[in-house]
Amino acid sequence: MLETVLLAVGPGDADRSNQLAEAVLEIAKPAGATVVLAHVFTSTEYDEVLDRLDFDRTVDEIDPDAVASRHSTIHDLQAILDEHEIDYEIRGAVGEHGPSIVDLASSAGADRVVVGGRRRSPTGKAVFGSTAQEVLLSAPCPVTFVRSE
C-alpha cells in the first residue's frame, strides 16, 4: 500500500511545479498517501537562498526544513495540495541533489519518489551527470520521472 510519496524539487523546478503537482496528485490522492515536499540545495544554493530570504545568520544553525518551507516552489505546491486536501510535510536538505534525494526517500520511508527533469543527450548525461538518473538508479522505491515540456 502506498503511504508516503516524496516529491523532490530543486532550483530548476519552479517552471514545472504544476506538472509535478499533477503527477503527485495522480499517485497520492487515490491512495490517501502523505506527500513529503522535499527541497534539496547544494551548499552554494543554500547560502544564496539564506541571503535572498533574509534569514538571520547569527543563529547557530538554520534548519533546512525551515528554509525549504519558505521557498516559492514549495509554496506553489502547498497551495495545490491544500486545494486537494492532501496531507503533506516539508523537508529540506543540503548536499548533492541525487544522493540527498535518495537519503530523504529512505529517511521518510517513501513508497514512491517523484522527480522532475529535462531531456538530455547521452553525451550530456555522461559529461554532466543527471540527478534524475542517479535517483532512478539508487532510490529505495519506485521513481516517477516528470519530464519538462
UniProtKB/TrEMBL annotation:
One Pfam family of this chain: Usp
CDD domains membership: USP-like
Q: Which residues form the signal peptide?
A: none
Name residues in a coiled coil. none
UspA domain residues: 1-147
Q: Which InterPro entries match?
A: Rossmann-like_a/b/a_fold (IPR014729), Universal_stress_UspA (IPR006015), UspA (IPR006016)
Family, as annotated? Belongs to the universal stress protein A family.
The name this protein carries in UniProt is Universal stress protein
